[in-house]
Structure formats: structure tokens, C-alpha cells
Amino acid sequence: MTDLTVASWNIRAGLGRDFRRRPSRTIGAIVDFDADVVLLQEADFRIPPRHAALPRMQGRIGPFEVIDLTPSAVGLGWHGIAMLKRPGTEVGAIHLHDLPALEPRGVVIVDLTVRGVAVRIVGVHLGLLRGNRRKQISFIVARLAELDHRPTVIAGDYNEWRDQRGFEAVPDWLCIHSPGPTFPAGRPFLNLDRLVYSRDLELLSSGVIAGPNAIMASDHRPIIGQFRHLSPRDAVRAAGSE
Hints:
Elements: E1 4-10, H1 23-31, E2 37-41, E3 60-61, E4 64-66, E5 82-85, E6 90-98, E7 106-114, E8 117-125, H2 130-145, E9 152-157, E10 174-177, E11 193-198, E12 201-208, H3 212-216, E13 223-229, H4 232-240
Parallel strand pairs: 1-2, 8-9
Antiparallel strand pairs: 1-13, 2-5, 3-4, 4-5, 6-7, 7-8, 9-11, 10-11, 12-13
GO molecular function: hydrolase activity
Pfam family, one: Exo_endo_phos
Domain Endonuclease/exonuclease/phosphatase: 7-220
């Protein structure tokens, strides 16, 4: 049984590969996501007051409800990171942090209850420099260590194309997974978008979404992952089998 499905997409503020900004096209792709939680990067424009790149109707984008992360009413998220949820998903604590970097970056940490399962979803869009990315991962892990533990998924645009470098600060209680190449969207060969998840979750399946809207509406393709919550005994067995 799938307990949690998470999708993530850098939407480039709705600017497509044809260099046309068509929010309806972006929303059309999001509508097709069969997910409990959708994380978006570059969901707001960069210039203050950072207006939202996608319109919302009565607090929704397509079938998904927008979790309020913005300090103002004009944007969708925090440092351009937005989080959408399936109706019925309960929202608990929300933590918003600035990340250490030469450029403005942030992290979103939200506690949710999805079909009775308590989970923690973290949205990231890391920096362009590997040194900054290492510091940002260390910062995020430190903030998570300050909270009570619950099954955790850290999803987003990691801006890291290598599998063996840049993730040195990820602790052993987290697994790193790339569903496949996502950038550039037309002919992707770089694995920039990833799912990092705690070992009390089992990754059942994952993939890169390649619908016609998804591959045209941004320079990244979306990713999706399905997870099952493991019992403590099963989590220990899974760790021992590695």
C-alpha cells in the first residue's frame, strides 16, 4: 500500500522551452500529477515583492490546495518554493528558514498527516555552487535534528548532477535517490532533481514525468516518488540488508 506520493518540479516561473510564459500550460501539467504533495520551485518571480507565477482560484491550483508559506499575499511560497496538497491532508507545524548562500535561498519544512500517517515534507532549491550546496544540506540536516523524528522526504531541485559528490553532509538516516535525468527538459541528461528520504520509508516506485505539457512548460521535467511507511522492525531489516 502506498502511504505517500510526492511530486516535485522546478517550473521556472511558468516560462516554457518556447520562451513563452503560459501559466495555464504549467497548471495543466500539475493537474495530471497523481500525488499527495506537490513541491514547486521558482513558483514566484525573483524581483520583490515576488508575485506568484501561477494564479490560484479559491486557494487552489488545479485540484491541489496551496499551503500558505508566503509572508505576503502576493506569492505562492518561500524563496519561490511552494507546497500543494491533496484535499483532506492535514497541515501541522511549518518551519521556514533562510539558507546560507551568496544568493537568496530558503528551505520549507512542513509536518503533514496523509491518510492518518504523520510525515514531514521538506522543499529545497539549492544553490548553484557546490560549496554552498554542502553548507545548505548541513544547515537543513541540523534544523531537522532539532525536531521530533517522523518519516521525512526532502524533495526538490538540488542543482547537483553528480551522484558521488556534493552529498557528503547527508547523514546515514537518509537515502538519496534520483528518479532519472530531468534537465534540460527537451533532452535531459543531468539528474538535478532528487528525492532524499528517511529509512523508515520504503521507496516503492519513482519516475520522471514526461507528459507533453510537462516537457514543454519548463526547462526541468517533474519527478514523482511513491513511499510506504515501514514499521520499526522492517526499517531495521531494510537497513541490515544494505
